[in-house]
Inverse folding.
């Protein structure tokens, strides 16, 4: 892949719409793309989230 790490920001629209399957799918795709060659990092923009959404992301 040519990189040591890949970052992604959580899909806020999907999370706010409670489309958790899409959020989970996108995270899994990032991990699959990185494979064993690169770190995968998911960014939660906490300033835009309510406590319930943060709890769901950290399960």
């Amino acid at each position: 892949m040519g990189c040591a790490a890949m970052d992604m920001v959580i899909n806020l629209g999907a999370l706010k719409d409670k489309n958790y399957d899409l959020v989970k799918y996108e995270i899994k795709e990032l991990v699959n793309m990185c494979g064993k060659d690169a770190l995968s990092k998911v960014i939660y923009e906490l300033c835009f989230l309510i406590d319930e959404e943060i709890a769901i992301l950290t399960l």
